[in-house]
């Protein structure tokens, strides 16, 4: 963890802020650091207390996360209810919100009001990989903790050491910086299947739009939840980024190194404008998914608009 020494210094100097915004591209590292921070605030290294925090059952600690595209209103309401109570076992109360950018506007405004007038001895740790999607007023009420970008090469090596193949590790490094999420995606070969579907759709989008439209039925069967659909589009975007790099002959880390020859050949039949347009329509599709537009309609429009 990058910041444990700085955290220890803050604690020893008793210079705690009421809110911290953790920002970076490695959610795994931010989660680990935030949990360490919470343990030190609540427990002062007392082991039985630390175990309670690690198991998310400390009465003065709340950890909010969601596998869906948004954090539910009920989760925030329950958080605020608990944080408005007095501490039970510790001097402080601490709450962590993972992927703070998943809050709805209503949820973000509720937290904003809470940050403006926090109860005594209450500390917020807000984690995000998308700080530009968070209200500026939230930024202004938090102490920013910036995590340096993770080395993609090191991350790929970590995934490979965990038993993930080199090709899959490369693609995962372009779609998630969370090692736990990467490992979970590969446990049941889910990402392997999704990746094959992505590469087939990408080829059809370039070569045969009509067949690409038909193949979308299979794509939706694989990417059958909103998180998987966003992962699908991020993987598709990474494929066209590889096409772009092949077209302009940039030697960089590839999302699909096992398809390098095929991607180079496809790039010869496309102009830079063609590739840029594909990337643009994929980005727009991802934006619409985040707004809960029907996934089938979003993907159909993406395929149609990609081939101009």
From TrEMBL:
It comes from the Bacteria. One of its GO terms (biological process) is DNA-templated DNA replication. InterPro entries: DNA_Rep/Repair_Clamp_Loader (IPR050238), P-loop_NTPase (IPR027417). This is DNA polymerase III subunit delta. SUPFAM superfamilies: P-loop containing nucleoside triphosphate hydrolases (SSF52540). It comes from Mammaliicoccus sciuri (Staphylococcus sciuri).
């Amino acid at each position: 963890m990058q910041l444990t020494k700085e955290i220890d210094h803050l604690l020893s100097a008793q210079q705690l802020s009421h809110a911290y915004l953790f920002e970076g591209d490695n959610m795994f590292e931010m989660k680990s650091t935030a949990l360490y921070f919470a343990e030190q605030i609540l427990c002062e290294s007392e082991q039985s207390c630390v175990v309670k925090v690690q198991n998310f059952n400390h009465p003065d600690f709340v950890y909010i996360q969601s596998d869906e595209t948004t954090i539910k209103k009920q989760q925030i309401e329950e958080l605020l209810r608990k944080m408005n109570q007095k501490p039970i076992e510790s001097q402080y109360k601490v709450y962590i919100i993972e992927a703070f950018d998943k809050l709805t506007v209503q949820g973000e405004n509720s937290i904003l009001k809470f940050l403006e007038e926090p109860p005594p001895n209450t500390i917020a740790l807000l984690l995000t990989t998308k700080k530009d999607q968070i209200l500026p007023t939230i930024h202004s009420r938090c102490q920013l903790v910036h995590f340096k970008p993770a080395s993609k090469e090191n991350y790929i090596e970590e995934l490979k050491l965990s038993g993930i193949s080199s090709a899959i590790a490369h693609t995962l490094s372009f779609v998630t910086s969370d090692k736990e999420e990467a490992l979970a995606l590969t446990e049941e070969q889910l990402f392997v299947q999704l990746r094959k579907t992505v590469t087939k759709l990408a080829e059809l989008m370039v070569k045969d739009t009509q067949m690409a439209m038909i193949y979308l039925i299979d794509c939706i069967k694989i990417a059958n939840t909103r998180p998987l659909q966003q992962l699908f589009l991020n993987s598709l975007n990474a494929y066209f980024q590889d096409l772009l790099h092949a077209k302009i002959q940039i030697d960089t880390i590839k999302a699909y190194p096992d398809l390098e020859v095929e991607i180079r050949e496809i790039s010869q039949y496309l102009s830079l404008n063609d590739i840029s347009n594909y990337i643009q329509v994929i980005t727009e599709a991802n934006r619409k998914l985040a707004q809960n537009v029907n996934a089938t309609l979003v993907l159909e429009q993406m395929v149609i608009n990609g081939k101009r």
